User: What shape does this take?
Amino acid sequence: MNRMYETIYIIQPELGDEELKGLSAKVQEIISSMKGDFKRLEDWGVRKLAYPINKFGRGRYFYLRFDGDAPLIAELERRLRLDDKVIRYQSVKIESETGAAAAAAKAVEAEAFADPEVPEVAAETAADTE
Amino acid sequence: MSDERTPQRSTGPRKKRPFQRRKVCRFCADKQVTIDYKDPRTLRYFISERGKIIPRRISGNCSKHQREITEAVKRARNIALLPIAGTHVLP
Assistant: This one.
């Protein structure tokens, strides 16, 4: 039985285009090989992490939306776990299609985070004083 | 004198409870606002400066939405959209 899932995975911030493409292709290949239904893959860009993971202060977020079954999730998570480039992942079963608004909000924030160091610090302090 | 005063002081503030307006759950009031763990901006409102989830008696949420908030905050913490405790600093 196919259920709707979404997976967010965070990879190391400094990777080349080829590695990004390779990873995306790998993920899609896993889904298709396990008879899943790949919906979409969004790149949220490099964002600041709320806390450092594996000494990375920032990471590149990917949002993956697909339908599948339990063995597919198990295999996907196993592969993500084995990949050193992936620093964190989380799969969630969803009841209904969401996320257009949320993704849009994300994109705006991602742009803000994509700025170089100095404006980011300014934004942080502004958030603190609020 | 002091003996008379002390009980008065202890009971005084208790009787004089400050009037508080009954808070309304903002998610019940506005159906457009959805709770999503991918949206840290909305969730920020429901965590304290130290990153703790604000209890229902203070935030004013109804039990259903408070449960959803709790789940969303915990998921967001997992993928580093929200801090686990306050603001962390890189060493």
